[in-house]
Specification:
The complex is a heterodimer of chains A (101) and B (240). Chain A has 3 domains: 1-29; 31-62; 64-101, no CATH class. Chain A contains 5 helices and 2 strands. Chain A has helices at 3-22, 26-29, 32-55, 65-79, 84-100, and strands spanning 56-57, 60-61. In chain A, α4 packs antiparallel against α5 (84-100). The longest helix of chain A is centred in the middle third of the chain and has 24 residues, at 32-55. The radius of gyration of chain A is 19 Å and the shape is flat. The model of chain A has no long low-confidence stretch (mean pLDDT 92). In chain B, α2 crosses α3 (46-55) and α3 (46-55) runs antiparallel to α9 (128-154). Chain B has a domain at 5-161. Chain B has 15 helices and no strands. Chain B has helices at 5-29, 32-41, 46-55, 59-70, 75-85, 87-100, 104-111, 116-123, 128-154, 157-160, 171-186, 188-204, 212-216, 223-226, 229-232. The model of chain B is unreliable at 229-240 (pLDDT under 50). The chains are: A mainly alpha (101), B mainly alpha (240). Chain A: The chain crosses the membrane at residues 40-56, 68-98.
């Protein structure tokens, strides 16, 4: 199998899955349980993503102090009700500053 | 026509959605540098790296495929694994179908950009109009930034400056956390699902290939499917 075929097949397969969720009939989504599940799935997946991005590197758990401190700064900014972009700058800024020292 | 207070409020929500979208799109988009560099290091040509970002446009699957190619694995299994990792986007589609309500050609175009970032921004907005604006702003800015930075990374730009030196690896999780924050603050069920999802994903990380633990964490939302339909909807307000 040629790498080009793998690239295109991955693109097609990923697109099919993305479309698959969007074309589920409204009738199915009107079921309150499905609606609640669909509503909570992004919460579950995005929290999982946050946890893995914060605590893992290349498939193994690894505590990176500057990155964790950056996320701590983001939490502090959120608790202080800072605007979204301030939260991002605090996270990247603290992480970058600690990597300098 | 007079400008009412609700018009002002609606305009404020729309610009907040655009700010969220641009922040995520440009902030997360630069990690395309790392992808472009990883792809070329794994043996893909610059054109192949760019094509993968253009047609797959979902980071986890892209990293998975180049990881297998770099490790000398079989292309068929590499492709299958990469596609399976895209499964979480189908779950996002379930939520976005109702939120975006797009049909026909627009649905076919929107489908290509149903990913973590667009879902995070769209679902964080307080109403449907700003959810659509947030989705579109994230989609356009991230598509441009991700593909441009893939090209630069593939051409060797990642060697010039390490994104980690600028703390950019903290941007993704910080952005997702900021977008989820209001929902976690508002709902007891949300907090329980989030905590369970984090535990599942972190516990599975040393055992399973990258990306799979995240898919697995969707199981944290399953209990609401099993509960009776009647109580399910009021559940959101159970704890203020």
């Amino acid at each position: 199998m040629n790498v080009w075929i793998a690239v295109l097949a991955t693109g097609l397969g990923c697109y099919a899955l993305k479309l698959g969720g969007l074309v589920v009939p409204q009738r199915v989504l009107d079921d309150p349980r499905v609606r609640r599940f669909a509503d909570l799935v992004p919460v579950a997946l995005l929290t999982a993503l946050i946890a893995v991005q914060a605590l893992a590197q290349n498939g193994s758990l690894e505590l990176d102090a500057p990155r964790l401190a950056g996320l701590g700064a983001a939490v502090a900014a959120l608790l202080l009700r800072a605007p979204f972009l301030v939260v991002l700058v605090a996270a990247a800024g603290v992480t970058a500053a600690l990597r300098l020292v | 026509m007079t400008v009412t207070e609700s018009d002002v409020e609606a305009a404020r929500r729309r610009s907040a959605a655009m700010r969220d979208g641009l922040g995520v799109g440009l902030g997360v988009g630069v990690s395309g540098l790392a992808f472009g560099a990883a792809a070329v290091a794994a043996g893909l040509s610059v054109a192949q790296a760019c094509a993968l970002s253009l047609v797959a446009f979902t980071g986890a699957s892209q990293f998975a495929l180049v990881g297998v190619i770099g490790g000398g694995g079989a292309l068929v299994t590499g492709t299958l694994g990469a596609v399976l990792l895209g499964g979480r986007n189908a779950l996002y589609g379930l939520r976005l179908a109702d939120l975006l309500r797009v049909r026909g050609l627009r649905r076919l175009v929107c489908a290509h950009v149903v990913i973590d970032e667009t879902t995070a921004v769209a679902t964080a907005q307080p109403d449907r109009a700003s959810a659509r604006i947030g989705f579109a702003t994230t989609a356009v800015s991230l598509y441009l930034a991700w593909n441009l930075s893939t090209l630069l990374g593939a051409l060797g730009a990642a060697r010039v400056g390490d994104p980690a030196a600028f703390g950019l690896d903290a941007l993704g999780p910080a952005a997702f956390l900021a977008l989820l924050w209001p929902r976690l603050a508002a709902g007891g069920t949300e907090r329980r699902v989030a905590a369970a999802a984090a535990v599942i994903a972190v516990a599975a990380t040393p055992l399973l290939p990258a990306g799979v633990p995240i898919m697995l964490a969707a199981a944290a939302a399953l209990p609401v499917l099993l509960r009776s339909g009647r109580g399910a909807r009021t559940d959101a307000k159970e704890r203020p």
